[in-house]
Amino acid sequence: MKKGTKRKATQDQPKPSQENKKPRAKRATPQSEPEYFEDKRNLEDLWTETFPVGTEWDQLDSVYQFKWDFSNLENAFEEGGILYDKKVYLFGCTEPQLVMFKGESKVVCIPVVVAVVSPFPPSDKIGINSVQREAEEIIPMKQMKMDWVPYIPLENRDSQVDRLKSQIFILRCTQRRSALKHLKLDRLKKFEYCLPYFYQPFKEDELEQSTEVQIIYPAEPKPVFCEFDWELDELEEFTDKLIEEEELSEDQKDAFKEFVKEKVREAKKANREAREARRKAIEEMSEETKAAFEKMRFYKFYPVPSPDAPDVSNVKSPFINRYYGKAHEVL
């Protein structure tokens, strides 16, 4: 072959004979048992989708460490149940309690779901209160990245949300846990002091009836913490007792008394304003809204006993929080 010429590829080169090849034995694969998966219940994740308001961020994972059974909540929406065919607003909370589980007693964050039967949202506000904070705050819940959103049952999740006439609304928080490290401590703590707020205009608030004031007097070397009841306590005797107990120095007596008087004036004014606001709210309310408030019902759901979680039957309480008061029924 001359240099520089290309060699023509042969098309008809013989292939290895297939006849002489021995067939490879196939390894028998054992027949695997068919797997069965339990069908998901239509409202199975309803309680987990409902945000547990006021729970410390570092405790959230511990709430879901057990397989809590809220089938009582799911059944309440079935025909014949107390929530069937009703418009319902749900929010969650947690209650730390000492309970038994598998022979051991331990403190557990028990998840609770409160159902409010109402034709409109019970409130668009959140209360922020704690022992450390001097005064409570009532703020729009959106400031804490919370809002009422429609809950879509599992069988409807492929449908367009706007076409569904949802009867179930849940309180949802959109604050991402991954972003918590960027929040200032005070803002972070606010989430832990949150309480779902509710204002019942037909019921006198406990603060309107209260005759007590919390006193935090900035004395030296340490502040004076006490409660003064303007109906039961006599200011002169009250102050002398603090001096006798060495909580207050003699030279601060007059200044302390003036401080208490000012706090009492502020509290009385706040009580008057609250009563006036309630009276005005009732006056301006439509008959339809009045009827809705009077028919509004609160149901408090605890998990039912199951082998996968502690039994909480003995620690149930009708109390929801200081704004909602007590539930009409505990389940």
TrEMBL record:
InterPro entries found in the cross-reference section: HIT4
Keyword Coiled coil: yes
Segments for region (Disordered): 1-39
Transmembrane parts of this sequence: none
Keywords (A to Z) from UniProt: Coiled coil
Coiled coil: 235-291
Domain of life from the UniProt record: Eukaryota
Keyword Aminoacyl-tRNA synthetase: no
Protein name, per record: Protein HEAT INTOLERANT 4
Organism: Stylosanthes scabra
Gene of this entry: HIT4_2
